[in-house]
Amino acid sequence: MGAAEPSLASLFAALANDDRLAIIRAMGEWPDPMTVTAIAHAVGISRFSASRHLRILCDARLVSATPRGQALLHRLCREGFEDVEDWLFPVMDDASARSSGGWADAALAAEV
Fold it and tell me: φ and ψ at 34, to 5 degrees?
């Protein structure tokens, strides 16, 4: 039996931290998997902090870790981001449709 999939709330919670967002950005800009040391250096945080943040990102399936010798190589994991996209894109499409003459305009007109 595999690991349980994270809830959508846990995915967003994992993204709700400036250091974790910086880690994701650094990993996205680097073409190869990264070690904790490389990530810590790229983001400007301690290895301990980087390791703690990476564990949270791995638990949320936003990052995967592969052992290589004594190091772990980390890479972004598309599946976790697809879960966020699957939820976010329809919400944004609905909001966009409503903002072009939908219920929001009617509600504003009623307040006047």
Answer: -120, 145
